[in-house]
Amino acid sequence: MFETLGERLAAALKKITGRGVLRPEDVDAGLREVRLALLEADVNFKVVKEFVERVRARLAGAEISPGLTAPQTVVKAVNDELVELLGGNAEGLRYASRPPTVVMLAGLQGSGKTTTAVNLALLA
């Protein structure tokens, strides 16, 4: 899902490269692609609608940060909201007081569950 989202967003945002301020129509074009990608990934319509509105509010009248392009600013806002939506946890993995620590990995086929499980096992 995130690869598709990234590709669609990159294509939509090529048009706004080189601008100093994000115009509402630029933001709308980028968010339309985000909306479509999320809906195609079977994300609930209400979640998508709320997510897009939160990103739009974050970008309303936003100036381009030093060192970032207009597309990168939009991608950063989308990333920040995705992290927040998915429960951005700066706490890290909490281990059980008595081993083993049980972790559930859920995702679609090919989304990296096995690779993540191996990486977690190597950390232990």
What does the model show?
The protein is mostly helical and 124 residues long. It has a domain at 2-85: Four Helix Bundle (Hemerythrin (Met), subunit A), CATH 1.20.120.140. Helix content is 57%, strand content 0%. It contains 5 helices and no strands. It has helices spanning 2-13, 24-40, 45-59, 70-85, 113-123. Helix 1 (2-13) packs antiparallel against helix 2 (24-40) and helix 1 (2-13) runs antiparallel to helix 4. The longest helix has 17 residues, at 24-40. The two termini are 29 Å apart. The mean pLDDT is 79.
Round the mean pLDDT to the nearest integer and report it: 79
Q: Strand-and-helix sequence, N→C?
A: HHHHH
Helix content: 55-70%
Shape: elongated
In the CATH hierarchy, what is the superfamily of the domain at 2-85? SRP54, nucleotide-binding domain
Concise account of the structure shown:
The chain is mainly α and 124 residues long. Helices cover 57% and strands 0% of the residues.
